[in-house]
Amino acid sequence: MEELLRLLAEDAPGSELARAAGSNQAARELALRIRAGIDASKKREAELSALVDVARELASARDPGRVLDTIVHRARTLIGTDVAYLTLYDAARGDTFMRATDGSVSAAFQQLRLPLGSGLGGLVAETYKPYWTADYPGDHRFKHISSIDHAVGEEGLVAICGTPLIVDGAFVGVLFASNRTRRPFSRDEVSLLGSLATLAAVTLVQVRAAAETAAALEQLSAAHAGAEHAAAAHDRFAEIVLSGGDVEAIAAALAELLAVWVILVDATGNELARAGEVDRDPLAGPGGPPSSGRLVPWAASPESGRLRRVGDCWVVAATAKGERLGALVIGGVGELSGADQRIVERAAVVTALVLLFRRQAAEQSQRAQADILADALSGTTDPRALADRFRLLGKQMELPKQVVVAVCRGDHSGVLARLAAPLEDRLALVGPYAGDLVLLIADSDPVRVAGELTDVARRTGVTIAVAGPAAWGSEVITMHRDATRLVATMLRLGRTRQSATRDDLGLAGLVGAAQVDVAAHVTHVLGAVIQYDVQRGTDLIGTLRAYFAAGQSPTRAAEALHVHPNTVQQRLDRITVLLGQGWLEPDHALNVQVALQLLTTLPDSK
Questions:
Q1: Are 106 and 155 in contact (CB under 8 A)?
Q2: What global pTM score does this model have?
Q3: Which of 85, 272, 395, 562 lies at 20 to 30 Å from 252 by C-alpha?
Q4: Phi, psi of 533 (to 5 degrees)
Q5: Nearest CA to 588 among 473, 508, 472, 479?
Q6: What separation in angstroms does the CA of 14 have from each of 32, 285, 342, 554?
Q7: Would you say the C-alpha torsion 593, 594, 600, 606 has a positive or negative sign?
Q8: Of 546, 566, 567, which is closest to residue 557 (Cα–Cα)?
C-alpha cells in the first residue's frame, strides 16, 4: 500500500500502479480510480488555464480577421481535432459561409457555403443550439446535400462538433471542431467549444466597437484635418477609447483641453461624471437651489447632437443609433471658438459610443449570467462546469459555496436598480427564469436577505420569496422550487409587495415545503420569548400554552397556573412586547400555537 501511495504522489502512470498492486484487485482498482480523478482534475485545470490564455490573446487583437484565426487555431488545439473552422452568417443570402479554417487542405471545403437547416452546421445556424456527431456521413439526423457532402468528403471529415456564435444577442456564425477519423465528443468538450465561442463573441463586440470608434474619430478628424487643436483632441479621445477608458476620462480630457468644467449626465438627467473646477451647481438652473444631481429642463438639448448655448453654459446631446444616451454640459467659459465647439461635439460623439459599448457589454454580461443561472436551476450543467463559466464572467474568482435564492414575481423591470449596494455586492447570479426574476445571493441567512429586499418589494410592487441557504447542484434547484411555491402562496394569501421567507408565513409557509427545519421555524416565531425565559428564569412559554389551552381566557389560564389573573395579564403584556402587537390576530395566533406544538418535539424543550 505504501508503494502505491508513493507512486500516486510521484504521478506515476496507471501501468506502474497496476504492477505495484499485484494481485490485490481492490487496491489496483482504487489506485486507478484515484489516478483517473487526478488526471481529470489536471485536464480541467489545463483547459481553464488555456481559456484564460485565449482571453488574454484575444484582448490584444484589434483585427476581426486575426480574432477569427486565433479562435479556430485554439479550438483545434484545445479540443484536439484535425481541423477547426468558423462560418459567418450572410443576412443578404440567408446562409453561412466559410470564414476561417485551421488544418484544412481542401479548397472546395474552404469556399463552402451552408444553407440554413442543411448539414450539421446549417442545423446549428437554424436552431442556435450545439450539435455533434461521431460519424457525420452516416448520421441521418442531418439534412445531407451534395455540395456539403462533397466538400466534407474531400476534406475527409468524419466526426464534427458545432456550436453557435452569438454576438450582442444576434446570430453571427458557427464554430466547429472536426476529426478525420471516427471519434465521440464528450459533453466537457462541447462545453469547452461553447466557452471558446463565448470568448469569440465578446471579443468581436469589443473589436468591432473599437473599429467603429476609430472610424468615427477618423471621419471627424478628416473633416478638420487643418486644425492642430482638433487633431490633438482626436488623438486624446482615440487613446482613451482604445485603451479602454470610460466616460470619466473623456470628461477629464475635455476639461483639460478647453480649460472648462464638464458634467456628463445620462438620458434621464442623472450625473455620470464631472471634471474641472465647477464654480456653481449647474444642474440647478440659473439662480436655482442646489440640485439633486438631475438635469433640469433648462439644460435639455436637441437630439441633433449640435452644441447650443443655454444660459451661461453650453449643452450638447450624446446620441448613438438615433437614441440620446446623455448630454455634456460645459461651463466656466464665456465663448467657444468654432474649433472648440467642434471638439465638444466630437467629445459628445465619442461619449455616446462609449456609453453604448458600456451598455452593450452590460447586456452581454446579463445574458451570460442568465444562461448560467438557467443551467444551474434546470440541473443541465454540473457545478464544476458552472464554476468554470462563472470565472469567465470576471465578476468573482470562485462560485460562492452557499447562496440564498430570491424569486421576484410581478413587473420586475425595476428590481435591479433598487438593490442596495451591500446586497448588490453579494449578488452572484441574476436573470429571468420561468417568468420570474431570480436572484442568487452569496449569503447563508435568508432572513437577513428577505429583510434587505423588503424595501425593494415595496417600491417596485413585486412579491419576493426567499429560500436557502443552498449549495450548488440539487440544493439550489430544491430551494428555487421552494421559493417558487412560496411566492405563489404569498400571492394567494394577498401578501403582495412583500419580501418573506417560509417561516414568515407560519403554517402556510410550511405546507408543501420540501424540507422543514423545525428548530429554525420555532426560533423564528417564538425565539424572543424563549430567549427571555432563558435570560430571566421565567416561564412565558408555559403561560402561552396555558392561555391557548384555556381558550385564550386569562382567568381560566390563571386557575390552571395557580396564579392571580392579573399575573397572567402582565405576562401576556410582556409577550406582546416580545412578539409584537399582532400576535393575537387569528392567523398569527394560529402560527404561535403551531410553533408551541413543534417546540414540544424538540430535544430539551420545556
A1: yes
A2: 0.40
A3: 395
A4: -60, -40
A5: 508
A6: 6, 78, 72, 78
A7: negative
A8: 546
Q: Are 132 and 256 in a shared domain?
A: no
Instruction: Give the per-residue pLDDT at 243.
Output: 67
Domain membership of residue 581 as a residue range: 518-599
Nearest Cα to Cα of residue 262 among 303, 319, 318, 323: 318
Same domain, 480 and 497: yes
Same domain (yes/no): 91, 28: no
Q: How many domains does the chain have?
A: 5
Q: What is the CA radius of gyration of the chain?
A: 33
CA distance 545 to 558: 12
pLDDT of residue 281: 57
Strand order in the sheet with 131-133: 113-115, 95-102, 83-90, 170-179, 159-167, 131-133
Tell me which of 361, 382, 408 is where a domain ends.
Answer: 361
pLDDT at residue number 286: 45
Q: Is 384 among the domain residues? A: no
Q: How far is CA 251 from CA 78, 254, 265, 521, 590, in A?
A: 43, 5, 11, 54, 61
Tell me the C-alpha distance between 606 and 597, whole Å. 11
In a domain, 378, yes or no: no
Residues near 567 by Cβ (< 8 Å), separated by ≥ 6?
A: 558, 561
3-state secondary structure of 504: helix
What b-and-e string marks burial along 173-192, b requiring 16 or more CB atoms within 10 Å of the CB? bbbbbbbeeebebeebbbbb
Q: Is 486 found in the same domain as 442?
A: yes
| Run means of pLDDT, 10 residues per run, the chain, 606 residues | 56 60 62 55 49 52 70 86 92 90 93 93 92 94 93 95 83 92 90 80 67 60 50 70 74 82 80 76 45 42 65 81 78 80 80 74 67 80 72 63 91 81 81 89 90 90 90 88 86 86 70 61 77 85 83 84 86 85 76 72 62
